[in-house]
TrEMBL record:
Keyword NADP among record annotations: no
CDD domains, per database record: KGPDC_HPS
EC number: 4.1.2.43
Family: Belongs to the HPS/KGPDC family. HPS subfamily.
Record's protein name: 3-hexulose-6-phosphate synthase
Keywords of this entry: Carbohydrate metabolism, Lyase, One-carbon metabolism
Protein's gene: hxlA
Lineage: Bacteria, Bacillati, Bacillota, Bacilli, Bacillales
Protein's pathway: One-carbon metabolism; formaldehyde assimilation via RuMP pathway; D-fructose 6-phosphate from D-ribulose 5-phosphate and formaldehyde: step 1/2
Amino acid sequence: MTEQQPVRIQLALDRMTIQEAIHMAQQVEPYVDWIEVGTSLIKEFGIESVRQIKQAFPDKIIVADIKTFDNAKYEFELCFEAGADVATVMGAAPDATLELCMQTARKYQRQTMIDLLNVSQEKRHHLKQYTDAILCDHVSKDEQEHHGQVAGSSSIQQTTTDTIANNSTPKIAVAGGITLETLPTILQQSPTVVIVGSAITQAHDPAESAQQIRELIHTFFSQSTNTTASI
Ligand SMILES: O=C([C@H](O)CO)[C@H](O)[C@H](O)COP(=O)(O)O
């Protein structure tokens, strides 16, 4: 598929080996834009997981979901030297850490994604100063599995609506249990990136699932006047 998608689809690869991750991404490659080396891969196999996945997909945007909380320069340099185009930091991290992530990403001409997991509204507002970052509204795996929450909750709407209303420039990503059923609500919030893991990787036919997600996004935007800023 070559047409310009208004929203990037980020495939999240978690809880599998590096070879399984590469095989999964090969199956769905035509339907996804960005590939996330999930936190679980980085924890289990190290930065080598980022290096091997970038080597396998040199033309894709590779997101290293390292979820940095401290030691920002060291961890972001590891990611970027391994080929990551985007690295993640927790929004709840100290300002010093966030600043160092932003500085390191700028030095490498790469991008920072700030994960808003468990971040207060006050801190979310504060984080909007990082206008060249991507802010990721994220419902965690544990909240999904133990509290029945999924992306598309009111807190997500709050952040996104504020961002649009203020015409500020951090881009918005949304993650956490996104499915075909929940995607239309999320698309109404005009994210730049939708992050989908299990709905594709656990599907009986991952390629079909990824294709359906892509087609839903295409249909949504061809039927509406919604637009998103591009990265
Ligand atoms: O960041 C993620 C999570 O913390 C690790 O499992 C995932 O990339 C994100 O949640 C997307 O995966 P799904 O929730 O399975 O769609």
